[in-house]
Design a protein that fits this description.
alpha/beta, binds adenosine-5'-triphosphate, 4-stranded antiparallel sheet, Rossmann fold, single chain, 10 strands, 251 residues
Length: 251
């Protein structure tokens, strides 16, 4: 198996509390991997360790085989690990397509400065960016609202837009933090399809999620946490039947 991400014996303590306790797993470079667990299981803490919000107290994070444990989120993003936020952070005054274009400009030669001042070579690249942004909006099902300001989009569409913008940075692995939170059934359905398409296009997806149904529908591999420890890992079907998982969710 070709792993894009390795979590090796990650532990995180807050004072006397062990929020993440010696957790290890690998994320293959293809497919959808989900981390689930009851409230307080340590999902958000693990996610923050992986994204670089804060380092683990012990253990290591490897990205493409390289140790990135101590790197900040921006440095990890530059190496291909890109996250979306639970709290939507879009440019509210920009249109949907402009928001995605910003994602491209942060990665392409000109950067944000060129995007604003537009030298000739940046203008030539502009058409590619426009086409790329339109394609990403199509991927997440937002073509119809391309020219609406982000501020007027319903919450669920803003979340999908954030995914499109994250993809503009061409991540090798996309981290999604509770992507279904606050979505209605139709939006959840759209999200599930979008995540499957992202994975089919060759980007590894790692998500943490409360919504068991979404996870069971889209994940290839599921990691289950409880009280900071990994209590199970396997296919959605295997995990669903695992007595330790059933006990954790009922208990
Ligand atoms: N900054 C912090 N300081 C102290 N304790 C913390 C901190 N962050 C998290 N914790 C504790 O660590 C444990 C794991 O929390 P975490 O938020 O990672 O779990 P979770 O699985 O994401 O939960 P939820 O599903 O409710 O979001 C909890 O007991 C929580 O109270």
């Amino acid at each position: 198996m070709n792993a894009i991400l390795e979590v090796k014996n990650a532990t995180r303590r807050f004072g006397g509390l062990v929020a993440v306790d010696d957790v290890s797993f690998t994320v293959p470079s293809k497919g959808v991997t989900a981390v689930i667990g009851p409230n307080g299981a340590g999902k958000t803490t693990l996610f923050n360790i992986i994204a670089g919000t804060f380092p683990p107290s012990e253990g290591a994070i490897l990205l493409g085989g390289a140790d990135v444990t101590a790197l900040k989120p921006e440095a990890k993003a530059a190496r291909g690990l890109v996250r979306t936020f639970q709290l939507v952070k879009l440019f509210q005054d920009l249109t949907a397509i402009e928001n995605v274009k910003v994602g491209f400009h942060l990665k392409t030669r000109g950067g944000l400065f060129a995007a604003l001042v537009q030298p000739a070579w940046a203008r030539n690249a502009e058409k590619d960016v426009e086409d790329g942004a339109a394609a990403l909006l199509d991927l997440v099902g937002l073509s119809k609202v391309a020219f609406s300001p982000a501020a007027v989009l319903p919450y669920g569409q803003q979340r999908l837009l954030e995914i499109a913008r994250a993809l503009a940075a061409r991540p090798q692995i996309l981290l999604l933090d509770e992507p279904a939170a606050g979505l209605n059934a139709e939006e959840s359905e759209r999200l599930a399809k979008t995540i499957r398409r992202i994975a089919a296009d060759g980007t590894a997806v790692l998500l943490i999620e409360h919504d068991m149904k979404l996870v069971m529908d889209i994940a290839d591999e599921v990691v289950v946490l409880d009280y900071g420890r990994k209590i199970a890992q396997g296919s959605p079907d295997a995990v669903k039947k695992d007595p330790a998982v059933i006990a954790a969710y009922l208990g």
